[in-house]
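User: Please predict the structure of the protein below. I'd like the answer in structure-token form so I can feed it into my own downstream comparison script.

Assistant: Understood. Taking the following sequence of 567 residues as input:
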Amino acid sequence: MSGAASPAAEFSAVLLSELVRRGVRDVVVSPGSRSQSLALAAARLEKAGLVRLRVRIDERVGGFLALGLAVEEQRPVVVIVTSGTAVANLHPAMLEAHHSGVPLIVITADRPAELRGVGANQATVQPGIFGEAARHTFDIDAPTGAPGEREAAVDLAAQILDAAQSPSRPGPVHVNLALADPLSGPWPEDFFSSDADADEVAREAETPRGESLALDYEPGTVVVAGHAAGPEAEAVARALGAPLLAEVSSGAHFGPNLVVAYRDLLDRANFGDRVERVIVFGHPTLSRQVPALIQRPGVETIVVRSHGADDYNPGHAVGTFVDAVHVVSGPDDSPTARSWLGRWVMTSRTELEQHDAPPIDIAISDEPTDQAAFSRAVLKGIRASVSRRALVEAVWRMTWPHDRLVLGASRLIREADQVVPGKKISVHANRGLAGIDGTIATGIGIALASQDATGVAAAGVTRVLIGDLTLLHDAGAMLFGVGEPRPRIQVIVGNDDGGTIFDGLEVATVADPSSFDRVQLTPQLIAMEQLALAYGWEYVLVRSRGELEGALTPREYPTLIEVRLER
């Protein structure tokens, strides 16, 4: 690169290359003028084969794309945007990362001090704009080329990573970097300027968290695995001989102790009312029964802290918070110990079987009339409309360990939580705040990261299961710019014409129906086939159960699958 010297360009290059040297592998850029030195530095690093660069024109999409990359890779991801409203568009992703403990590094370009507070174009108060959602905010004065700035950039990179990947509380970090003209200039001759270990990020992420609480077997114990609890919850439940009440996005929804019908059993006599101790992993969000159980007098609750912003503490009723647990003694071989777990597991299985679709009960003989009746019954089942349960069961059945599954904040994740059997697969949902923001972008980030790690040919497919409003809220994420990689991804939309999740809430029983439909249900008319065509996606319409599994067969290109559901 030729031209006049640019302190902005040199500082940007050193800062980004040092982040890369210390382990950052992905950068997401949204275009802008004030951030050009950062964006061009990222492009140069990509050409050198040192980072994977993603470009998105919508900053909100870029933020959630980075969130998905960071979730899948379990390492910090850098997001670069320009000044002004571009920064504010990152707030939803920052909030989700904050509440979920996801390490995002947001670098926002800003005007230098002399252009702040004087009505300059695209200038607002950017330091502190994310409030407590940022683990730390660095407000950096505009580089001037003074001695020591290069070393300051190297030191800043180390501080950023320390804040983003704190072993006890990882999360998003805001770097607000003022940049003055000239914003572009020659690339520094040497990229790397320190002896930092390139594996430092991975090693720090594995640092143990605090002391571990010893657990003994106690009758009446259940283990609750909320969102992102991880497989440790399943291992602890098994070692304690305790029922495992694991949400579908917990990462622990598998194993012999799993109780899928936990909501029903928590409400039932001789089950929920017999619980005396609850051990919680992750962030439970999908039932009212779990927080009600914890708040019941006489129930002891132990919460294993997660990386999110807040310790789980419904009704301020939790008595013990710990960083980790380990099991000292498991259940004995007494009938009481065996029956506690067995009753939960077997009753749950019976409950699910009772709600399964009844088999086709026709006696088959060689008589043509019997065979014709059987064929008609099979055909009727194939032509039947798709229920929510049939949809989530089909998606679950078609998803394997090499695949990825992303569940949106709609009725469908709750349906899945109540019916899908145990299976050790990778499931994600943005449950930090449980909003519908950025679900498609998050799924694309997860898809890109998983397929980068294994190679597209060897990787599975990423399925994103959402409702129609969640699709419309993040439709811009379907845009892939020229030269941007397209992962193997299916966005599966259960289209019931609006936010029918509200039908199950109290508001549906008290509101005037027409007002309820307009301000809560918010029905929309959208030609999804045309939407898919506009963004260059394949499109499949599912009208019946017979079409469902064929539609879910993996394809090589991004596919939008519309499944019509009744309200």
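That's the full token string. The longest helix spans residues 335-355.
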